[in-house]
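Field: sequence (string)
Field: structure_tokens (string)

Example rows 1 and 2, in order.
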Amino acid sequence: MSFTSYVLTPTQFSDAPRNKLPFITIEYSDNTKETITDSHFIIKTFTERKVFRDLDAALTTQQRADSSAFLAWTEHLLYPVVVTTRFARETNFQVMRATIPIPVPAIVKWFIMWFLRRNIVAQMWKAGFGRYAEKEQDELIQEWVDGVCAKLELNGGKKWIMGAEEPTLVDITVWGFLANALEVGSGNEEFKAMILRKQILVEYVKRGANRWFQEYDLNRLLK
């Protein structure tokens, strides 16, 4: 299975299958289409069909289970808690409102961001994450930060989370969350401060950036 091109298309939750992002639509040469939702199943499908190599191929069964648990911790607990801190906390939200690029007049953007905030906060409340006190939210984020540090410290002095010589799938995900938090900056000030207090995470972010995104201004990202 191979592809000759791809198109990145702006969309929204209401247009997505199951109201869930991301999703992809594959168009085959016989004009049939296949839609796959959720990053987990997109990666699984592309790996099984040899579109790209299995980043976890060198891991043992036990390591794969450990990696899956860490991915679930990151995507299904850390992510919604961080989203809650960005949109429910007034100071953070003001930064998000100012920095999210929406190419519309300022007054229109104000209403869009108000509507977006209302919906996100309501969703996080229904899911339970918005019901935590701010102190509890920060504790959940700190536990994740400490967990990442513990994995890096216990991997035998190697560079990556699972102790492999090369990054695995969990590195792609964890590094992405760390880099995103630093890029958002004052929009999640608490999370950013937790990262910058851990030198081992700072070095990890640098390694990932130097490997995947040499164009990043690390001095700006890590200040």
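Row 2 begins here:
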Amino acid sequence: MPSSTLPIPAAAIAAAGHEAGKYYPQSPITSRRTARRRKFLFAFALFALLLVFLAGPLDVLANPFSSVAATIRSWFSSCHSDNATKDMSSSVTPAGHHATSSGKGWHARAVEHERSAATSFELKKEDLVLTVLLNSQVEPEGFTLALFKPLHAVDASGRQLTLSKADFDAFHEHIEEVKKLPATGEFGGQWRVKHERTGFPIDRVLIPGHEEVSVYGWSKDVDTLESETQGVDKLPAPLQQLIGLAKEARDGYVRGRREEAVVEKVLAFTTA
């Protein structure tokens, strides 16, 4: 007998399709594409918010691609400018005027100049404007720095260096301020910085025609005095800064390996 096929109601077909859709809502390929679209839209939204923050909102809306390019160029120029500034500050010669008014980094600049254009000068007592000595348990009679007019210095290693005018002027400014400080009434004009222990070095500042000034326990991080001195409880800023600059002259110094003849000549000026 011929088989008969019963017609399937359209409603049943629709119901079956609906049930199948629950278990296979999307093909794997379609699912991955959807996920990628969502990630792209999310990233684009974040990027758009970043542009609105860095650039003007009206500029971004008017021409987003030019704003992106401008922002990237700005970042690149900023980084390049920062690097160039760092390179310049580390290699400036005494003939330039790039030194900061604080004088920090003067020794590195002078040493770099001395390597490329070594110079020597005649040491004269009448040109001496500053000598800084060090008394410590390791170096009872240590030498740190001597400064000579017009732009010269002898560092702890005995090297004869030439400073930029800006760096020399920074020293001169601090020297003049130190001259104005009141006498402490202590031996060697000593100011004593407070520490938890004892045995710290003493930095001696000798300025021709002026009484000696010294600091016990100088530290770049601590300036509180052991006791109130001349109405103040902190080391005066000009003295703090002057010794800080002078100590740069000890960079690279190795005990027993200095130009003794040069150092001895400078020390003779302080005792004559």
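free_text_note (row 2): The longest strand covers residues 128-135.
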